[in-house]
Amino acid sequence: MPSARFSMLDRSPQETKDRSAEATRPVAFRGAGFTPRGSRSAGWIALALVIAVWQLAGSAGWVNPLFLPAPSAIAMAVYKLASSGALWQHLSWSIMRIGTGWIIGTAAGVIVGFAIGLSTMARGVGITFISALFPIPKIALLPLLILWLGIGEEPKIATIALGVFFSTAISVYSGVDAVPRNLIRMAQSFNVPFHAIVRRVIWPGALPSILAGFRITSSVALLLVVSAEMIGAQYGIGAFVLQAGNLMQTDQLLAGVVILSLFGLLVGKLINLLEVRLLHWR
Length: 282
Prior knowledge:
Region (Disordered): 1-23
Mean pLDDT: 85
Structural class: mainly alpha
CATH topology: MetI-like fold
Subcellular location: Cell membrane
Transmembrane segments: 42-62, 100-121, 127-150, 157-176, 221-241, 253-274
Helix content: over 70%
Low-confidence stretches: 1-9
Number of strands: 0
Strand content: under 5%
Order of helices and strands: HHHHHHHHHHHH
Main location: membrane
CATH superfamily: MetI-like
CATH class: Mainly Alpha
InterPro entries: MetI-like, MetI-like_sf
């Protein structure tokens, strides 16, 4: 004990001050909760670099333009499509089919998903049918739907609705299952009505999973509409891409692919806005 006292007395005032400052040094906060900090400009810079290298390869003749046209040729093809009015004609038909099929499939999927998540009987029946029918490629049912519904828009819309329905139902009942049961039991202990529990507890808790399902179903709808239009449609982005491929017009074919990509980006931005609006409490 005296040796410790003498060692403290032997320290200079500067050493004592430095040690006290080191002892009171603030510790960095490490509880950020895995908050994403992605840079908005990084993705656009990377995309611009890829397009620049692609354009350089096309201009220098390193790549045959028949197999891979330069971005400038694709942009010119898009401009010609837009100025001629053909782009808006094809795009309007595709948007109509996607919108109608997505709304029908989403509405049915949300209802069935909540029924499976909230009812034991519905769960036993619904999961069996969904597990049996979900792996079937929906585009393979298009000939059968044409036989049932006739040649027209109904088979294409029904194909999209089926693809959207199964993915939506799975995401909804998975979101309902993910809601903490303690919250539901607490609401039941206070005699909260069933409809209020669904609206105030289960719906907000399942909403992140439901919106994540919307991202998946929007991509599924886009894939199915292109496939359906390639099989049996005169107008639509899928029909346009198929026609351009048959004629070996690769610049127009890739123009259709770029239009589909831009449409997918737009839908993703709309879902982002929906998430910001509905999930502001997170």
